[in-house]
Amino acid sequence: MPTAVQKATAEAIVNIFETGSALGDYANVTLLKGDSGHLTYGRSQTTLASGNLFLLIKAYVETEGADFAEHFKPYLARLQAIDLSLNYDAGFKDLLRHAGADLEMQRVQDAFFDRVYWTPAMTYAASLGITSVLGCCTVYDSVIHGSWRTMRDRTSAQFGEAGAIGENAWIEKYISVRRQWLAGNPSEILRKTVYRMDELGKLVAQNRWNLDLPLVVRGITIDEAALSGAPVRASARIVEERLLSLRSPMLKGPDVEEVQNALKAKGYSLAADGVFGSGTSAAVIDFQRKSGLAADGIVGPGTRAALGL
């Protein structure tokens, strides 16, 4: 597990990829034509289309002392429904920018990115036996950017599991596979994000597996002063990674069935019928409670990672 400084360094690298700043920009609001994530926001740019912007704003609204909580409450239903008209809602985007200056929003974002991205990424890394800081950073970058699971499975299918070929070799192959996928992606804007893999590839070539400071990423020096104190980006998140919860009408699909099967493997008795009903919701809440997660019945990145998905 990376130390606090190593974790901050890995986060700084991804922040540079996302916002051009090692510390990130808590007030950053971005909408790029052709970006599958649609409206993106915050220190490491969470997206409307993934449902994670809803989780972030929900957490902020529930925080005592949040200056803009009452202003956000009318938007929660639209965020949960992934209402893409929010892309062009000037009032909502201005609200996001203003809230970025609130210290409570900054604290919520730090905790949110840890909970929804960093912790699941470390769970994924551990499941593969990845222990190097650069390896963990590579996984974290893909969890933030999107499509980690698809690229992980593609790499292992082509070259073997990390435990078989060695962690460093697997990470190098993963970066190559993901770069090829990004470079040949049908989305023009996504093709422009190959710089992420190029920069990680440079660190591999330099044998910077511990990410010892100082180091330079996209021309920006990361050192202790930088940690204390915009490139083109686009979400590569895949649509099947939607937020799952008990709703009316009930959610249906193979992603629901996948969660149900994972819960069954954990000892829960329920039908894997692909319908997110009250029984599935109760099992999710119980699993979250026993796993030390927020017991809200919402299957997001943290719960998926804890289920081994």
Which helices and strands appear, and what pairs or packs with what?
Layout: H1 4-19, E1 29-30, E2 40-41, E3 46-47, H2 52-61, H3 69-72, H4 76-80, H5 90-99, H6 103-128, H7 133-145, H8 148-159, H9 162-165, H10 167-183, H11 188-191, H12 195-205, E4 215-217, E5 220-222, H13 224-228, H14 254-265, H15 278-290, H16 301-306
Antiparallel strand pairs: 1-2, 2-3, 4-5
Helix percent reads 40-55%
What is the count of helical runs?
16
Strand order of the largest sheet: 1-2-3
Distance between the termini: 20 Å
Instruction: Give the uncertain stretches in residue-range form.
Output: none
Mean pLDDT: 93
**How would you characterize the largest beta sheet?**
3 strands, antiparallel
Indicate the structural class: mainly alpha
Strand content: under 5%
Net shape: globular
SSE ordering = HEEEHHHHHHHHHHHEEHHHH
C-alpha Rg (nearest Å) = 19 Å
- Count the E strands: 5
Q: What is the domain tally?
A: 2
Structural overview:
The protein is mainly α and 309 residues long. The protein contains 16 helices and 5 strands. The chain has helices at 4-19, 52-61, 69-72, 76-80, 90-99, 103-128, 133-145, 148-159, 162-165, 167-183, 188-191, 195-205, 224-228, 254-265, 278-290, 301-306; strands at residues 29-30, 40-41, 46-47, 215-217, 220-222. Helix 1 (4-19) packs parallel to helix 7 (133-145).
